[in-house]
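Purpose: get a first structural picture of the assembly so the mutagenesis plan has something to point at.
Setup: two entries, given in the order below. No constraints added.
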Amino acid sequence: MHDARSTMRRPIGLRLWLSGGWVTLLVLGAIFAPLIAPHDPLYQDLFAGRMPPVWVDGADPNFLLGTDSLGRDVLSRILYGARLALTVALVAGVLTCLIGATLGLIAGYYRGWVDMVISRLVDIWMAFPPVLFAILLIAVLGTGLTSIIIAIVVIDWTRFARVVRAEAMTQGTMDYVASAQVAGRTRFGTMLTEILPNVLPTILALLTLEMGIAVIVEAILSFVNLSISTDAPTWGGMIAEGRTSVHQAWWVLVFPLITLFLTVLSFSQLGEGLKDYFDPVLR
Amino acid sequence: MSFLDVENLTLRIVRGPRILRAVSLSVDQGEVRGLVGESGAGKSMIGKAILGTLPRAIEVVSGRIRLDGTDLQTLSARERRRQIGAQVALIPQDPLTALNPVRRVGPQITNRLVDILGWSKDNAQARALELLDEVHIPDPARVMRAYPHELSGGMRQRILIASAFAAEPKLIIADEPTTALDVTVQKQILRLIKNMQAKHNTALLFVTHDLGVVSKICQSLSVLYAGKVIEDTDTRRFFAGPGHAYSQALLHATPKYTDPDDSLTPVPQQVIDAVEAEVAEFDKGLGA
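Result (structure tokens, whole complex):
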């Protein structure tokens, strides 16, 4: 007997190629920033201030994307900024995911009073305005990488908890969960073998989405100067600086903005693409 | 003493109405008992109560379920799960949702053997292959590696049957195992269940609303209405002439495929009124 369904293979779509490509490029750029960055991101040259990018008249070919008002190389700053952005995205994203998804899974599968406690906590949490909450937290904790990560985890775990709880709840009513119990699986074992694999594609999509959000939050915090030390290159900091001189040197604002935009977009698209690719059930 | 003994089982929705009213039934080793009734009569709930998979909102008010003489209520949750896992299996209603879509079929069959009976992975694997062959699945090795969505509904139901018989259970609860399948496949699956049951000498509780199916495979049957056993008899006597007016009407309402122009006969209103009165009488007796 031959069943065509089993021989079906899904191609890697354009969406996955583009978003994955951009993220890979950025990761490589961030890791090898000291090797590939053409200049020291902190080196100032007041005589070379506000140089336009190479394809504009009056540019210095040494500065591919131009320089800011203090004569620092924009490309190098973007590359070094990517280190912070991606570190925050990865660490904060994964931590948020672990905490939120675990709570959501337990609430959705065990229901009862556990669910009551977690759900009420989520409700209360969501009543706080997130950005204000983050700024307040940083104000209390002090600036620095750890504080940014803590702030993101604290304000955003509810996103995972809510979605994963809902998914786990629908999975919990499925016949195969009952079958596993009849076959002698413990409740905890059932949760791990029957429920978790089914919500994993969703968790994966949420994780990359969360990474994008972490990048945004980090940019917002550095925009208002609440990120890491003020002289370190950050995308949000560059945007804040570029904003003041946008009429004289648009490139100082535009390039970090485009990078930020593409990164966040790629993260969310990567998640959706991976979810479709790994989910054995065509949805 | 029968293998499965359900005695005066009463269930209700928590702080709500009763859904089973002092149900008693028994299934012997090698016996096939049909459990028939309309939608919502509580047929599936009996199965769920035995298996311990009742929804959270439903509680056991009273009654006893004995498995091979052991009262299940006296066991700890852990011991009960072990007993059920080793002795009872379920053939579920809907093959499309009864297999986990993200796990391969093989482990879903062998899990029970490894978890409950402590078999080695290789032994369980060999046994699963043998069983898939027994339920006439071609190329079982390939099917073991497949995901459920790669297989048709009939194939999945065969896999579930194989999986139910895998641990040589003494009792199988089949909860309308053919309802979700189309008519031609239904017949094959039914024959398969019957053959497997006879071969393994399993006690089978067959939940259905199809009296035609009952006449083909069951030795005895219980008729359920509003969670109350209306009639408990053997199949031959039932089809020769059921004792209770409701059973008669139910039998009369079975569509006759031999005469497609014949219109369906509903259960007459006075029969329903009479049986409702009987249920109300019963509730009054309990002081509800």
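Chain A touches chain B at residues 1, 3, 5-6, 111-112, 174-176, 178-186, 193-194, 197-198, 200, 279-282 (CB under 8 Å).
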